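Write out the 3D structure for:
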Amino acid sequence: MHAAAGGVGLILTQWAKHLGATVIGTVGSPEKAALARENGADHVIGYEGFAARVREITGGQGADVVYDGVGRATFEGSLDSLRPFGTFVSFGSASGPIPPFDITLLMRKGSLFATWQLLFEHLKRREDVLAMSRELFDVVASGAVTVPVHARLPLAEAAEAHRRLEARETTGATVLLP
């Protein structure tokens, strides 16, 4: 889980632990490492040489899945972190978009699977939205997942919120208030 101390990272880490996964989280500072550990990450590592560290932690096998909301800066290392037939899930581009690539790269790196989730596809059918919402709210209501809010800003400061996100100065959720 890249950005394991970020808003999505903290939620996904907790949820993955609730489901029984071993979570390896990347973070950019000692403070963020502590936060990721507090929220269930089994292994917390920095970004420098993270693919080699994932291989080391997994006994050379690689991870089953990488969740990457960082983008350009972590793309190649994310693929190098995966086991054969592993899955790369891209859901953001905090460091910039992933550059175009030759799809045979996935084959050369172990017959990998890759996906980019589009929110609007998930929202097309009401019954899907209700089922996914119920699943999320049930896991939050059970206490297995908490949503830590670490910053609240007025809506008029949305540009500042984005600047903080892009500068990787945030942890947990940032809420914009009307």
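Strands lie at 24-26, 43-45, 63-68, 82-90, 113-116, 149-154, 173-177.
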